[in-house]
Give the backbone structure.
Amino acid sequence: MVKRFTVAIDGPAAAGKGTISRAVAAHFGFAHLDTGLLYRAVGALGGDPIAAARGLRPEDLRRDDLRSAEAGQAASRVAAIPEVRAALVAFQQTFARREGGAVLDGRDIGTVICPDAEVKLYVTASDEVRAERRWQELRAGGAATSFAEVLEDLRARDARDRDRAAAPLKPADDAVLLDTTELTIESAVKKACEAIERQMGQGRG
Ligand code: DC
Protein backbone atom coordinates (compact mmCIF):
# COMPACT_ATOMS: atom_id res chain seq x y z
CA MET A 1 0.00 0.00 0.00
CA VAL A 2 1.33 3.48 -0.87
CA LYS A 3 1.89 5.73 2.11
CA ARG A 4 0.81 9.16 0.90
CA PHE A 5 -0.16 9.87 -2.68
CA THR A 6 -2.58 12.60 -3.72
CA VAL A 7 -4.47 12.78 -6.99
CA ALA A 8 -6.07 16.19 -7.60
CA ILE A 9 -8.86 16.25 -10.18
CA ASP A 10 -10.34 19.61 -11.17
CA GLY A 11 -12.63 20.86 -13.90
CA PRO A 12 -15.99 22.46 -14.67
CA ALA A 13 -19.39 20.96 -13.82
CA ALA A 14 -20.36 17.64 -15.44
CA ALA A 15 -17.02 17.14 -17.23
CA GLY A 16 -16.73 13.62 -15.83
CA LYS A 17 -14.59 14.38 -12.74
CA GLY A 18 -16.78 12.40 -10.36
CA THR A 19 -16.93 9.27 -12.51
CA ILE A 20 -13.21 9.37 -13.23
CA SER A 21 -12.36 10.03 -9.57
CA ARG A 22 -14.43 7.13 -8.30
CA ALA A 23 -13.00 4.75 -10.91
CA VAL A 24 -9.41 5.83 -10.24
CA ALA A 25 -9.90 5.54 -6.47
CA ALA A 26 -11.33 2.03 -6.87
CA HIS A 27 -8.51 1.01 -9.25
CA PHE A 28 -5.69 2.10 -6.92
CA GLY A 29 -7.50 1.45 -3.62
CA PHE A 30 -7.35 5.17 -2.71
CA ALA A 31 -9.92 7.05 -0.63
CA HIS A 32 -12.09 9.54 -2.56
CA LEU A 33 -13.45 12.93 -1.51
CA ASP A 34 -15.97 14.76 -3.69
CA THR A 35 -15.20 18.27 -2.41
CA GLY A 36 -18.23 19.74 -4.20
CA LEU A 37 -20.33 18.02 -1.55
CA LEU A 38 -18.81 20.27 1.13
CA TYR A 39 -20.00 23.40 -0.69
CA ARG A 40 -23.34 21.80 -1.55
CA ALA A 41 -23.88 20.98 2.13
CA VAL A 42 -22.99 24.54 3.21
CA GLY A 43 -25.42 25.95 0.63
CA ALA A 44 -28.19 23.54 1.64
CA LEU A 45 -27.87 24.29 5.35
CA GLY A 46 -29.03 27.88 4.72
CA GLY A 47 -28.53 30.68 7.22
CA ASP A 48 -25.07 32.22 7.55
CA PRO A 49 -22.81 30.28 5.16
CA ILE A 50 -19.63 31.11 7.08
CA ALA A 51 -21.09 29.70 10.32
CA ALA A 52 -22.39 26.69 8.37
CA ALA A 53 -18.94 25.99 6.89
CA ARG A 54 -17.22 26.34 10.27
CA GLY A 55 -19.71 23.97 11.92
CA LEU A 56 -20.04 21.42 9.07
CA ARG A 57 -20.57 17.86 10.37
CA PRO A 58 -20.12 14.53 8.53
CA GLU A 59 -23.88 13.89 8.61
CA ASP A 60 -24.48 17.15 6.69
CA LEU A 61 -22.73 15.52 3.71
CA ARG A 62 -25.20 12.65 3.73
CA ARG A 63 -28.32 14.75 3.08
CA ASP A 64 -30.25 13.40 0.10
CA ASP A 65 -30.99 16.81 -1.46
CA LEU A 66 -27.41 17.74 -2.35
CA ARG A 67 -27.38 16.55 -5.97
CA SER A 68 -30.07 18.83 -7.42
CA ALA A 69 -29.40 21.71 -9.83
CA GLU A 70 -30.57 24.17 -7.12
CA ALA A 71 -28.07 22.74 -4.63
CA GLY A 72 -25.34 23.14 -7.29
CA GLN A 73 -26.18 26.82 -7.81
CA ALA A 74 -26.36 27.47 -4.05
CA ALA A 75 -22.99 25.71 -3.65
CA SER A 76 -21.43 27.84 -6.35
CA ARG A 77 -22.69 31.03 -4.60
CA VAL A 78 -21.37 30.15 -1.12
CA ALA A 79 -18.13 28.89 -2.70
CA ALA A 80 -17.28 32.46 -3.75
CA ILE A 81 -17.03 33.56 -0.08
CA PRO A 82 -13.36 33.44 1.04
CA GLU A 83 -14.24 32.66 4.70
CA VAL A 84 -16.33 29.67 3.60
CA ARG A 85 -13.43 28.31 1.56
CA ALA A 86 -10.95 28.95 4.38
CA ALA A 87 -13.10 27.00 6.84
CA LEU A 88 -12.96 23.90 4.59
CA VAL A 89 -9.23 23.87 3.77
CA ALA A 90 -7.86 21.90 6.74
CA PHE A 91 -10.36 19.05 6.36
CA GLN A 92 -9.50 18.65 2.67
CA GLN A 93 -5.73 18.82 3.23
CA THR A 94 -5.86 16.24 6.02
CA PHE A 95 -7.91 13.95 3.80
CA ALA A 96 -5.41 14.41 0.95
CA ARG A 97 -2.43 13.30 3.04
CA ARG A 98 -4.03 10.25 4.65
CA GLU A 99 -2.11 7.00 4.41
CA GLY A 100 -3.07 4.75 1.54
CA GLY A 101 -3.58 7.48 -1.07
CA ALA A 102 -6.39 9.92 -1.81
CA VAL A 103 -8.27 11.29 -4.79
CA LEU A 104 -9.96 14.67 -4.37
CA ASP A 105 -12.12 16.23 -7.05
CA GLY A 106 -13.26 19.84 -7.21
CA ARG A 107 -12.29 23.19 -8.67
CA ASP A 108 -9.17 24.29 -6.75
CA ILE A 109 -7.56 21.06 -5.60
CA GLY A 110 -4.45 21.26 -7.79
CA THR A 111 -4.10 25.04 -7.44
CA VAL A 112 -4.92 25.82 -3.79
CA ILE A 113 -5.75 22.79 -1.63
CA CYS A 114 -3.01 20.41 -2.80
CA PRO A 115 -0.46 22.34 -4.87
CA ASP A 116 2.03 19.52 -4.15
CA ALA A 117 -0.27 16.69 -5.27
CA GLU A 118 1.67 13.88 -6.97
CA VAL A 119 -0.77 13.91 -9.91
CA LYS A 120 -3.02 16.73 -11.13
CA LEU A 121 -5.66 16.23 -13.78
CA TYR A 122 -7.86 18.89 -15.33
CA VAL A 123 -10.95 17.29 -16.86
CA THR A 124 -12.98 19.26 -19.42
CA ALA A 125 -15.52 18.70 -22.19
CA SER A 126 -17.51 21.00 -24.48
CA ASP A 127 -20.45 22.86 -22.89
CA GLU A 128 -22.94 20.96 -25.04
CA VAL A 129 -21.58 17.53 -24.17
CA ARG A 130 -21.49 18.35 -20.47
CA ALA A 131 -25.04 19.70 -20.56
CA GLU A 132 -26.22 16.62 -22.45
CA ARG A 133 -24.70 14.30 -19.84
CA ARG A 134 -26.16 16.30 -16.96
CA TRP A 135 -29.58 16.47 -18.68
CA GLN A 136 -29.67 12.67 -19.13
CA GLU A 137 -28.68 12.23 -15.48
CA LEU A 138 -31.41 14.59 -14.24
CA ARG A 139 -34.04 12.99 -16.48
CA ALA A 140 -33.08 9.53 -15.26
CA GLY A 141 -33.63 10.87 -11.73
CA GLY A 142 -37.13 12.01 -12.72
CA ALA A 143 -36.47 15.78 -12.98
CA ALA A 144 -38.59 17.67 -15.55
CA THR A 145 -36.13 20.03 -17.23
CA SER A 146 -35.10 20.96 -20.77
CA PHE A 147 -31.68 20.68 -22.40
CA ALA A 148 -31.62 24.47 -22.89
CA GLU A 149 -32.29 25.05 -19.21
CA VAL A 150 -29.52 22.64 -18.17
CA LEU A 151 -27.05 24.27 -20.59
CA GLU A 152 -27.87 27.75 -19.27
CA ASP A 153 -27.58 26.58 -15.65
CA LEU A 154 -24.23 24.96 -16.31
CA ARG A 155 -22.80 28.01 -18.08
CA ALA A 156 -23.96 30.33 -15.30
CA ARG A 157 -22.33 28.13 -12.67
CA ASP A 158 -19.05 27.78 -14.62
CA ALA A 159 -18.86 31.55 -15.15
CA ARG A 160 -19.31 32.14 -11.42
CA ASP A 161 -16.73 29.47 -10.53
CA ARG A 162 -14.20 30.85 -13.06
CA ASP A 163 -14.64 34.55 -12.42
CA ARG A 164 -14.60 34.60 -8.62
CA ALA A 165 -11.58 36.13 -6.87
CA ALA A 166 -11.18 33.34 -4.29
CA ALA A 167 -9.62 30.16 -5.71
CA PRO A 168 -11.22 30.37 -9.17
CA LEU A 169 -11.62 27.35 -11.40
CA LYS A 170 -8.50 26.99 -13.56
CA PRO A 171 -5.98 24.29 -14.43
CA ALA A 172 -2.77 24.14 -12.38
CA ASP A 173 0.29 24.88 -14.53
CA ASP A 174 1.45 21.28 -14.18
CA ALA A 175 -1.96 19.60 -14.64
CA VAL A 176 -2.49 16.90 -17.27
CA LEU A 177 -5.42 18.03 -19.44
CA LEU A 178 -8.08 15.45 -20.16
CA ASP A 179 -10.76 16.53 -22.64
CA THR A 180 -13.60 14.00 -22.43
CA THR A 181 -15.74 15.52 -25.23
CA GLU A 182 -15.04 12.61 -27.54
CA LEU A 183 -13.87 10.02 -25.05
CA THR A 184 -15.84 7.14 -23.61
CA ILE A 185 -15.77 6.83 -19.83
CA GLU A 186 -13.55 3.77 -20.20
CA SER A 187 -10.91 5.57 -22.25
CA ALA A 188 -10.99 8.66 -20.00
CA VAL A 189 -10.46 6.45 -16.92
CA LYS A 190 -7.66 4.59 -18.73
CA LYS A 191 -5.86 7.86 -19.53
CA ALA A 192 -6.23 9.04 -15.92
CA CYS A 193 -4.84 5.73 -14.60
CA GLU A 194 -1.92 5.93 -17.05
CA ALA A 195 -1.01 9.44 -15.82
CA ILE A 196 -1.02 8.16 -12.23
CA GLU A 197 1.02 5.05 -13.06
CA ARG A 198 3.62 7.18 -14.85
CA GLN A 199 4.00 9.31 -11.74
CA MET A 200 4.12 6.29 -9.42
CA GLY A 201 6.85 4.80 -11.62
CA GLN A 202 8.87 8.02 -11.36
CA GLY A 203 8.45 8.05 -7.58
CA ARG A 204 9.99 4.57 -7.39
CA GLY A 205 12.78 5.25 -9.84
O1 DC B 1 -18.49 19.60 -8.18
P1 DC B 1 -19.89 20.12 -7.84
O2 DC B 1 -20.73 20.38 -9.05
O3 DC B 1 -20.59 19.26 -6.85
O4 DC B 1 -19.63 21.53 -7.11
C1 DC B 1 -20.66 22.38 -6.71
C2 DC B 1 -20.14 23.81 -6.59
O5 DC B 1 -19.23 23.91 -5.50
C3 DC B 1 -19.37 24.32 -7.80
O6 DC B 1 -20.21 25.00 -8.71
C4 DC B 1 -18.32 25.23 -7.22
C5 DC B 1 -18.14 24.76 -5.82
N1 DC B 1 -16.86 24.05 -5.60
C6 DC B 1 -15.75 24.82 -5.37
O7 DC B 1 -15.82 26.05 -5.42
N2 DC B 1 -14.56 24.22 -5.07
C7 DC B 1 -14.46 22.89 -5.03
N3 DC B 1 -13.28 22.34 -4.72
C8 DC B 1 -15.58 22.08 -5.30
C9 DC B 1 -16.79 22.70 -5.60
